[in-house]
């Protein structure tokens, strides 16, 4: 276990049990269905929990959640996004490998039809945002293709990939800028959630899962990194090299915070993956160096104010853990520092409140709540595989 030797006040089993208890209490009133914001993510948590502790109680809870999502979808209208909509729900159904849960292929085909139309619409608008736009929808189709190797799904992904790469290589501005209709509000975002590093990471993952590599992929990857590097400069305050965002019309820079949704850790992940994909040693070294540089940021300097995956301590711990796997470089000491912060923020794993606008609120979803924390802890304890983090654009 990565954290073996740490003086925990509670065993990990007790901590996970407490997290599960809090999550289950929220299910009855929860009406959000997404993998990141709602019930689909909670179903994902139970799916992985069953891997560590197979029992009828967790099985029944998993099936109950899936049934509830189905009922909600039949009663209310939901968007197609990964974060809060149908793509997230479909991705979880495709991801779950449970011998007691059988989803008919016809059901997936109905989801395919709905989401293929949404994918085309979002791509036509150049809205590729991972959480809310085309990339998140495409993630569903990647999981479907990994399971079935269906030619029609392969065609959807190939067309999507080809169009995306051609846009990057011929008219990158439409991909690199935010979708705001107001010129003075258009941004270049740099983070994994909505920005350039997210585009980079997803593009590599998409191409990795297709049978044929697009001939323009190297040019596209190189263009994204080169564009990001035009803004690369070490900032003494944030202690990071890349900004969080840049206003296009006046080049005003917003400093990045350390986290998952933004900051150098996620950017380093994308650069490392790009280097591995292209077999480019220099890029891999750049990514590795960027990760090491973030270790100089103290907890206080980071401005991290909650435990959550999105912009909190869990997301930082998870990324250092994944970096350890990618680079064979241990980050236990850094993880230990952040783990102690995690204990403080959750009152030794008894309270799970996320900071929202100007207050702390109890939350149980993956992105900002207890389900994300539970999955992170199970991962760093090597109890489950980290592939669930694909829903966070982490590979």
Automatic annotation (TrEMBL):
Can you tell which superkingdom this protein's organism belongs to?
A: Bacteria
Annotated keywords: Metal-binding, Zinc
Q: Which InterPro entries match?
A: LanC, LANC-like
One annotated GO molecular function: metal ion binding
Q: What is this protein called?
A: Lanthionine synthetase
Do you know which Gene3D superfamilies this protein is assigned to? 1.50.10.20
Entry's Gene Ontology cellular component terms:
plasma membrane
- Do you know which PANTHER family this protein is assigned to? LANC-LIKE PROTEIN (PTHR12736), LANC-LIKE PROTEIN 2 (PTHR12736:SF21)
Q: Which CDD domains match?
A: LanC
| One GO BP annotation of this record | peptide modification
Q: Name one Pfam family in it.
A: LANC_like
- Where on this chain does Zn(2+) bind? 261, 310-311
């Amino acid at each position: 276990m990565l954290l073996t030797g740490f003086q925990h006040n509670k065993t990990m089993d007790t901590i996970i049990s407490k997290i599960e208890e809090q999550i289950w209490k929220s299910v009855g009133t929860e009406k959000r269905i997404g993998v990141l914001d709602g019930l689909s993510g909670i179903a994902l948590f139970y799916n992985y929990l069953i891997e560590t502790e197979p029992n009828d109680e967790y099985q029944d809870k998993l099936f109950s959640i899936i049934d509830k999502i189905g009922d909600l979808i039949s009663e209310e209208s939901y968007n197609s996004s990964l974060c809060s909509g149908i793509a997230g729900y479909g991705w979880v159904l495709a991801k779950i490998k449970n011998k007691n849960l059988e989803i008919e292929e016809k059901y997936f085909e109905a989801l395919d039809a709905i989401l293929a139309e949404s994918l085309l619409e979002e791509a036509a608008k150049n809205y590729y945002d991972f959480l809310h736009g085309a990339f998140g929808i495409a993630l569903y189709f990647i999981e479907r293709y990994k399971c079935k190797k269906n030619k029609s799904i392969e065609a959807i992904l190939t067309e999507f990939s080809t169009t995306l790469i051609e846009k990057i290589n011929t008219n990158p501005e439409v991909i690199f800028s935010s979708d705001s209709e107001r010129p003075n509000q258009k941004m270049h975002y740099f983070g994994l959630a909505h920005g350039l590093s997210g585009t980079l990471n997803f593009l590599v993952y998409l191409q990795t899962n297709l049978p044929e590599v697009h001939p323009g992929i190297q040019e596209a990857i190189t263009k994204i990194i080169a564009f990001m590097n035009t803004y690369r400069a070490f900032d003494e305050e944030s202690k990071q090299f890349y900004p969080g965002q840049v206003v296009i019309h006046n080049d005003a820079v917003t400093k990045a915070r350390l986290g998952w949704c933004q900051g150098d850790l996620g950017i380093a992940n994308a650069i490392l993956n790009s280097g591995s994909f292209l077999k480019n040693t220099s890029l891999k070294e750049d990514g590795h160096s960027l990760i090491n540089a973030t270790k100089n940021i103290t907890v206080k300097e980071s401005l991290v104010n909650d435990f959550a995956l999105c912009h909190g301590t869990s997301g930082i711990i998870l990324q250092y853990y994944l970096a350890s796997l990618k680079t064979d470089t241990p980050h236990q000491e850094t993880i230990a520092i952040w783990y102690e912060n995690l204990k403080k923020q959750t009152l030794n794993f008894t309270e799970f409140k996320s900071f929202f606008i100007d207050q702390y609120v109890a939350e149980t979803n993956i992105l900002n709540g207890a389900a994300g924390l539970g999955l992170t802890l199970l991962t760093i304890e090597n109890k489950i595989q980290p592939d669930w983090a694909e829903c966070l654009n982490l590979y």
